[in-house]
Amino acid sequence: MMTVLMYSITTAVKNFLFPGGAGCPLCGRRGSPKHLCRSCLEIWAGLARGFTPCEKCGRFSADLGGSLICKECQTGEQPFIKACSVAPYEGSVREALHYFKFCGKQDLAYPLGELLAALAAEVFPFKSFAAVVPVPLHEGRLRERGFNQAALLADVIGRLLKIPLAEDALVRKMETPSQTSLSKQQRQANLKGVFESGNSADGLQGKSVLLVDDVFTTGATVQECSLVLKASGVQKVYVAVVAAGILRVQ
Ligand SMILES: [Zn+2]
Ligand SMILES: [Zn+2]
């Protein structure tokens, strides 16, 4: 609630300083409303400083212990080939995703999707994806929020990288209570049977897809979606998220 209030105050100040809505969609400073400004991008790059992303799951660690992948990826097999993320899920990145998701700030979809498209093109340069697949929302939640943030991001990525969007390759059959206070094991158990493959999954058999979500923390959602896609015949799942969690030093 406090964040929403702060956001409305910030927006009011921004509208006063920059009438007409021009400027960075995140901080309101001058620049284009379609892209994050240089200072916001510098802040985001600063959040990643001192951390190395795990080569497999994309989460950030201050010390991977001489390995390229985190302990979890070393000990357990991930159902996706590789996940990549723009920045750690901290500070300004966390706020941006909060505004985007919970404050209806849909004009962040383009700048965030653009960053994800650039990242995916860099990390997966020679991959040919049959589709971009967003992590779905339950229809009740979709009605309440009015949009699925992952689908908006996937749409931008698809348009920029010229990959078809398969919005209904995955369907969320039920809503789960807030997962934030749960352990990884509890989240995984909660998500069993929540997703199923949808209409457009049939055309993806034997193909590679790019699964898109806003954030990857425990990875339970992305893992479950990857498993469902693979069970429906998708051969390889690659993942792109805006933000990934920071792993405790192992
Ligand atoms: Zn900015
Ligand atoms: Zn990892």
Give a nutshell description of this structure.
This protein is of the alpha/beta class.
Summarize the helices and strands and which ones pair or pack.
Layout: H1 2-17, H2 38-48, E1 52-53, E2 60-61, H3 71-75, E3 82-88, H4 91-102, H5 109-123, E4 131-134, H6 139-145, H7 149-161, E5 170-172, H8 184-191, E6 195-197, E7 208-216, H9 220-231, E8 236-244, E9 246-247
Parallel strand pairs: 2-9, 3-8, 4-7, 7-8
Antiparallel strand pairs: 1-2, 5-6
Helix pairs in contact: 5-7
The structure holds zinc ion (ZN) (2 copies).
The site of one zinc ion has 8 residues, from helix 2.
User: Which strand order do you get reading across the main beta sheet?
Assistant: 3-8-7-4
Based on the coordinates given, report the CATH architecture.
Answer: 3-Layer(aba) Sandwich
User: How many discrete domains?
Assistant: 1
Which hetero ligands occur in this complex?
zinc ion
Q: What is the N-to-C succession of helices and strands?
A: HHEEHEHHEHHEHEEHEE
Characterize the overall form.
globular
CATH topology description: Rossmann fold
**Helix amount:** 25-40%
Question: What's the pLDDT, averaged over the residues?
Answer: 89
Question: What integer value in Å does the Rg equal?
Answer: 18 Å
Distance between the termini: 35 Å
Major β-sheet annotation: 4 strands, parallel
Number of strands: 9
Low-confidence regions: 1-5
Structural class: alpha/beta
Report the portion of residues in β strands: 15-25%
In DSSP terms (H or I, runs of 4 or more residues), the helix count works out at 9
Structure description:
- This protein has a single domain (50-176, 185-247), classed as Rossmann fold (3-Layer(aba) Sandwich), CATH 3.40.50.2020.
- The longest helix has 16 residues, at 2-17.
- Helix 5 packs across helix 7.
- The strands form 3 sheets. Strands 3-8-7-4 form a 4-stranded parallel beta sheet, sandwiched between helices. A 3-stranded mixed beta sheet has the order 1-2-9, with no helix packed on it. A two-stranded antiparallel sheet has the order 5-6.
- It has helices at residues 2-17, 38-48, 71-75, 91-102, 109-123, 139-145, 149-161, 184-191, 220-231, and strands at residues 52-53, 60-61, 82-88, 131-134, 170-172, 195-197, 208-216, 236-244, 246-247.
- The chain is α/β, with parallel strands linked by helices and 250 residues long.
- Strand 1 (52-53) and strand 2 (60-61) form a beta hairpin.
- The model is unreliable at 1-5 (pLDDT under 50).
- It is 40% helix and 16% strand.
- It contains 9 helices and 9 strands.
- The two termini are 35 Å apart.
- Bound molecules: zinc ion (2 copies).
- One zinc ion binds next to helix 2.
